[in-house]
Design a protein that fits this description.
mainly alpha; 5 helices
């Protein structure tokens, strides 16, 4: 019998809904770094539950503000997907925000 281990942990996924403010701040700072702009992301995503797995997820609810900017839409979609799949963990978000601004974001590279 083969057992497949999935990288994400239930604890990390459950922490999504418990860490709304952290995620909001993380998205804000990453957008600022990537696009050199401050953008209000209120209403651009929502915390909800996957209908099949019942796990907490972030769902995009993009307005025309995001939809009219293809690079921003692609970037946010990718970033939210990384958070939902566990590729970007709560712990990694905390670490990046804790090191900001001392890190100066120099370790980041422009993705798009």
């Amino acid at each position: 019998m083969n057992i497949i281990v999935i990288h994400e942990t239930l604890e990390e996924m459950e922490n999504l809904s418990e860490n709304k403010e952290l995620i909001k701040n993380y998205l804000h700072y990453i957008i600022r770094q990537q696009f050199n702009t401050d953008i209000d992301l209120t209403g651009e995503y929502a915390f909800t539950e996957n209908l099949v797995s019942r796990k907490p997820i972030i769902a995009t609810t993009f307005s025309d503000k995001i939809l009219s900017d293809p690079e921003m839409k692609l970037f946010l979609t990718s970033l939210i997907t990384e958070i939902n799949t566990g590729g970007c963990t709560i712990q990694s978000m905390k670490t990046k925000l804790r090191n900001y601004p001392s890190e100066g974001w120099s370790s980041f590279r422009r993705i798009i």
